[in-house]
Structures are given as structure tokens and as C-alpha cells.
Amino acid sequence: MTKAYASLILGCAMALGYLTMAELDRPLVSSLSGLDPTTFADGAETITLHQALTMRSGMRLSDEQLEALRENPSRLEGSALVPALFESSAPISSESQTFLYQGIDPELLMQVIEAIVPGTAKDFIKTEFLGKMGITNYTWQTTLMVFIRPAHARE
Q1: Which helix (H) or strand (E) holds 4?
Q2: What are phi and psi of 48, to 5 degrees?
Q3: Residue 88's CB: how many other CB atoms inside 10 A?
Q4: Fewest beta carbons less than 10 Å away: which of 37, 57, 102, 109?
Q5: Distance set, CA 34 to CA 30, 68, 78, 82, 115 (Å)
């Protein structure tokens, strides 16, 4: 469900003019500010929105890296999330950019949405997406912790 909602919300932001189709093929870091690409795993700065939308970012984190992130949950919240993931991932290559269902890619999309819409992503979703459908009973997760599982649990 997360992937579907993230995709729909990104489409809503596009329909309202906050993002263009051409921007889907640009590195998603170009929509984010305050990042230091020198700390990223090789290739992380090349991940496009399209690759994140299709679960092909190439992000791969070992069980040890996931455990290190779990031990410091503040690194998985808000604007700290993208640098933490990009620094922790194995190098990104065309070989790693194959489909892998994981919670990381939709979360990357949500960070872009947070950066491009006025206000917060939460407010945007409430007013421009769920609210327009009359949906008022939902929860908002503020951390990726639920979606980060060891590799053996994802296979």
C-alpha cells in the first residue's frame, strides 16, 4: 500500500504543478537541499524519481547496517533519513538497480514530496489527497523503522 499511496501522492503533486514529468528522470537529490553527496555510497546521487517509483533505486543495506540505523532512530526521521540511507547503502550500480520490494523507495519519494509541496507532506496529503476524498481516519507514520527489515525477511 505504501508504494501505491506514495505514487498517487506524487502524481497529485505533479497534477498541481509542483513537479514535471521531466523531473522523474532527474536524480531525486536535485529536489532535496542540504545534502552532502561526498558522504553518499557510490551512485546514490544518481537515483532518479522514476527508479524509486518502480522500486529500482538500487539501495541495498546489510542486516548490520539496518541494525546500526535501528540503534539511532533519529537518523530515520524527517530530513535526516535520506542522508542516513544514502550513506549506509552498498554502492549503487546498474546491477543493483533491479526491482526489490522494500520500504526505502516509497520513503525516498515521500521525502521529495515533503521538499516540493508547500507546507509539509502530511498537510499536503490531508488537504490535496485524502481530504478531497473525504478520508479522515488514517494514521501518519513519522519513521521508517517499521519498513526496515533484515534482508532474509524481505526475500
Answers
A1: helix 2-15
A2: -95, 165
A3: 20
A4: 37
A5: 10, 23, 13, 11, 11
Lowest mean pLDDT among 35-39, 43-47, 103-107: 103-107
pLDDT at 142 over 90: no
Amino acid at 26: R
Residues 130, 70 contacting (CB under 8 angstroms):
no
| CA atoms of 92 and 84, how far apart (whole Å) | 15
Look up residue 120 and give its amino acid: T
Rounded to whole angstroms, the Cα distance separating 103 from 55 reads: 9
Please name the residue that has the C-alpha cell 501522492.
9
CA distance 138 to 39: 36
Region for residue 34 given its phi and psi (left: phi exceeds 0; alpha: psi -120 to 50; beta: otherwise):
left
Q: CA triplet 123, 138, 17: central angle to 5 degrees?
A: 35
Helix (H, G, I), strand (E, B) or coil at 142: coil
